Amino acid sequence: MRPGVEESTPRVEVDLVAAHGLAALVTLLASVAFGVIAAIELLFPDLFGGVPWLSWGRVRYAHTQGVIFGWLGNVFFAFLYHAVPILSGRSVTSALAGRWLFALWNLAVMVPGWILVLAGVSQPLEWAEFPLVIDAFVVAGLALAAVQFVPPFFRRGVESLYVSSWYVIGGLVFTLLAYPMGNFLPEIVPGARGAALSGLWIHDAIGLFVTPLALAIIYYVIPASSGRPIYSHFLSMLGFWLLFFVYPLNGTHHYVYSVIPMAAQVGAIVASTILGIDVVLVVTNLLLSMRGSGVFPTDVGLRFVATGTVFYLLVSIQGAVQAQMAVNRAVHFTDWVVGHSHLAMLGFATFAGAGGLVHVWERLPHVRFNARACHWSYWLLFAGVTMMVVDLTVAGLVESDAWQSGVPWIESVRAARPYWLIRAYSAIPIIGGFVALLIGLTTGPRRDMQADREDAVDVRGAGRLMPRVAPDVAEPT
Amino acid sequence: MSVSTGRALRMAYLVAGVAGLGFFVLSVVLLGYWPGRVLEEQTRRMSPGKPLDLSASERRGRDVYAREGCAYCHTQQIRYLEADIARFGAPTLAWETQFDYPHLWGTRRIGPDLSRAAGTRSADWHYLHLYSPRVLVPDSVMPAYRSLFDGAPDRPRLEARDLVAYLETLGRNRELAGPEGESYAREACDCPDDHMAHMALSVTPVNGHPARARRDAAYPQLPAGTDLERGMALFAVNCAGCHGPRGAGDGPGAKALLPRPTNLAQHRYASDRLSEVLWNGSAGTAMSAWRDRPLPELGAIAAAVQSLSIAEPDTPPSAEIAALGTLVYEANCAQCHGVDGDGRGPTAPELVVAPTDFRRQQPTLAASVRALREGVGGTRMGVWSDRLASDELLAVAHYVRTFYRESR
Asked: A158 CB contacts (<8 Å, ≥6 apart)?
């Protein structure tokens, strides 16, 4: 151990890892169910006979909020309870606060949020659909998460932080700043002015919450699983800071050709281009770190993460391209963009999250683990997300073509129908993949029966990972 | 690690951390606050007169629109692009959005943009469309909002009425401002080099919706439809929901609409009349315009409508009946329908629904009698059986049929 590290044993809050992990899986399946209902309703709009709480708009609200806060929020927290003590050499701030955070996030945000949205109490802003009363609990939860996970890094000393730690700090701090901007301000700033702020939040929700925490997982799991250090810490840090500088400046690209001043639109498009280049840098570094592990590594957690990295590259290049005015004018408002969001959330973030969860689970005492089911999960999800994104991308081009050609509007709906059918079918491998993930993490042999009775695991054991996670942390080059 | 390296790294990270916060603040200032200032200034300068804020009912309707996620399929933002302008009308200006708390711009269009929904459809059309969208648009994927109604499309609850009231506010202020408002905004904008502003302010009409009914507007003559089969297929998809499969005015949506959909089978139509009504719709009724359809399709539909007519061969009324009919007509009907039966009597312009032009549209005798006996609900055509003797009523029913000119 490097000098200055306390000798006291950092604790991994095993119960909280398991609790958030299971909550992540449950909220994931619910969120997917909402998405599938919405997908099927596009084909059979009268399926539920006009029951208001199952109508398309409301389940669509429930779907996105469930994915970002239920599934990804919980999976990030599960990962952080495992990784923060190892990365920082310190316990998280408080196990008691952890129980409060779990209760707050799931019982004061997710459950009532969904109930309210389905009952018709909501906010019509993208990625901000839970009503204001829930927003207050989200902010409290994010603040609690920052208090829980950020101080251990500062107690350790920032000069020796591994890049994952930076992403954790950045993600938690900046989300706390961005969330109120996207959720509260448009309520008091009207119309086009409010839309300018919404555009920022739509992007920040992905860029400052989902992306940093997903990258924290990827940067962690690759060295921890492969046993090889990250290719270049310099590139890691360069990528990190560039991302945090450039990401917030992207938001206005959601409203290209709108009344929002053209200078702001062009600025955001330039930033989007720079971001695309930055991601190429980040992903190059990550893929070089994977040399020797193969394209589809045998370790299923690592394989999820590796594929998530490739999806990250694809979705970011796609994002930079579709922000360009010539492309944006054609694909904006179409299913192309819906495909793009699913490549980001279901491809990149979910693969990173699932990889992180599997990685953590394999190292968790007294839980069951079924590797075979996890392999199934990987291939089913890979097939499902590929099918869905390719299908929606083509659908977007078909819709765009119909719109440009001036045929009656309904022709674009008619033309999209076969693609919506394929999209609905893509739900089969996707649901299968997630059920397999649930089976993978709840069945199979129990691990480490010795530790079964312990509440927390001695991180010195896990601490052996440290030099592998950040081998040259102690001696930066 | 040496102490000085550690300190240097700490400093570097401190600087980077501050810079990171700085960039976040920069993003909010450059892409949130500054555009907000520009848009606020534009709004202040370019708002013509005093734009109407939403009434209590419209505001409640907006809440319904928001909670049902309407904005996830219908944008409220016409982009500064030819394709958007051609389809929906003038691009959205900042001042038009000044009462939107929060904005409902949306980022996906499954259904059409609604920025210019005001004055595009009749209230009945909206109610029927909300209650059972596929009656009007068979391929629509819109959810049916049954819970806004008391069991039938013509029994809207308060929420449905509020929602439709809200839809009628979309684009209302810009239209109310009229051409004067546009030129006011052009001058106030003071932006000779702003390509986008010019694009937004040079679109006429502001509402370019192809379904919007227009009265007394120009229309092309439809090509004579030859493919009757295709015409009937198009009729079945687009028209039968209201007019019924055989054009008897008894489609599944008919009961919800006032005036009721015309019984096409009971009328003979001149091609000119069908050209006009298909191209311009019928203002004041649920009959939309179909200007987004290719002319050959409309021609085929027109041919199908003509083929549905069950009008009997014409037997001219006796001279006696004709004389009585003339007398009654000129005393009672010419005010609206015109002396020549062309629907252009002196009071016609005052009427929301244009009086029938008998020269281009001939009812069967039965239909004519029924209209006189029962009136035409939803129009100013009242009940005449209590004002005319039965021989007078029959005579005038005969008489109005004599105006019809096939060639028109």
From this structure: B9, B10, B13
Query: What one-character DSSP code corresponds to residue A158?
Result: G
**Of the partner residues A174, A181, A190, the one whose CB lies closest to the CB of residue B99:** A190
Of all residues in chain B, the one with the smallest CA distance to A404 is: B83
The alpha carbon dihedral of A448, A450, A453, A457 has a sign of negative
* Neighbouring residues of A173: CB distance < 8 A, sequence distance ≥ 6: A146, A150
Q: What is the DSSP letter of B190?
A: -
Q: Which residue of A has its CA nearest to B10?
A: A159
Q: How buried is B271 (Cβ within 10 angstroms: 0-12 exposed, 13-18 middle, 19+ buried)?
A: buried
Place of tokens 């917030």: A248
The string of pLDDT tens digits covering residues A129-182 is 999 999 999 999 999 999 999 999 888 777 778 889 889 999 999 999 899 888
Q: Which residues 35-94 on chain A approach chain B with CB closer than 8 angstroms?
A: 41-43, 45-46, 49-52, 55-58, 60-61
* CA separation, residue A100 to residues A75, A211, A440, A457 (Å): 17, 25, 28, 21
CATH number of the structural domain A11-222+326-446: 1.20.210.10
Please report the residues numbered 263 through 292 in chain A whose beta carbons come closer than 8 angstroms to any beta carbon of chain B.
264, 267-268
Q: DSSP letters of A403-439?
A: HHHT--HHHHHHHHHHHHHHHHHHHHHHHHHHHHHHH
Which residues, including other chains, have CB under 8 Å from residue A390's CB and lie 6 or more apart? Answer: A339
CB contact under 8 A, A241 and B19: yes
Hey, what domains does chain B have and what are their CATH numbers?
56-201 (1.10.760.10), 228-308 (1.10.760.10), 319-403 (1.10.760.10)
Query: Could you give the ipTM of this predicted complex?
Result: 0.90
Tokens of B87: 């389809």
Q: Is B309 on the interface with A (CB under 8 A)?
A: no
Q: What is the mean pLDDT of residues B145-159?
A: 95
Which among B39, B92, B109 has CB closest to A193?
A: B39
The residue ranges of every structural domain in chain A are 11-222+326-446
Q: Please identify which residue in the block is written with the tokens 């006011």.
A: B184
Cβ distance of A410 and B139 shorter than 8 Å: yes
**What residues 282-301 of chain B have any CB closer than 8 A to a CB of chain A?**
292-293
Find tokens 């939403």 and name the residue.
B54
A249 touches chain B (CB under 8 A): yes
- Residue written as token pair 């932006």: B191
Between A and B, how many CB-CB pairs are < 8 A?
A: 251
Contact by Cβ (8 Å): A396, A334? yes
Q: What mean pLDDT comes out for the span A114-127?
A: 94
The pTM of this model reads: 0.91
A window 441-470, beta carbon within 8 A of B: none
Closest CA in chain B for residue A325: B81
Question: Chain B window 69-88: which residues touch A at a Cβ cutoff of 8 Å?
Answer: 69-73, 75, 77, 79-81, 83-84, 86-87
**pLDDT digit string (tens) for B54-74?**
999 999 999 999 999 999 999
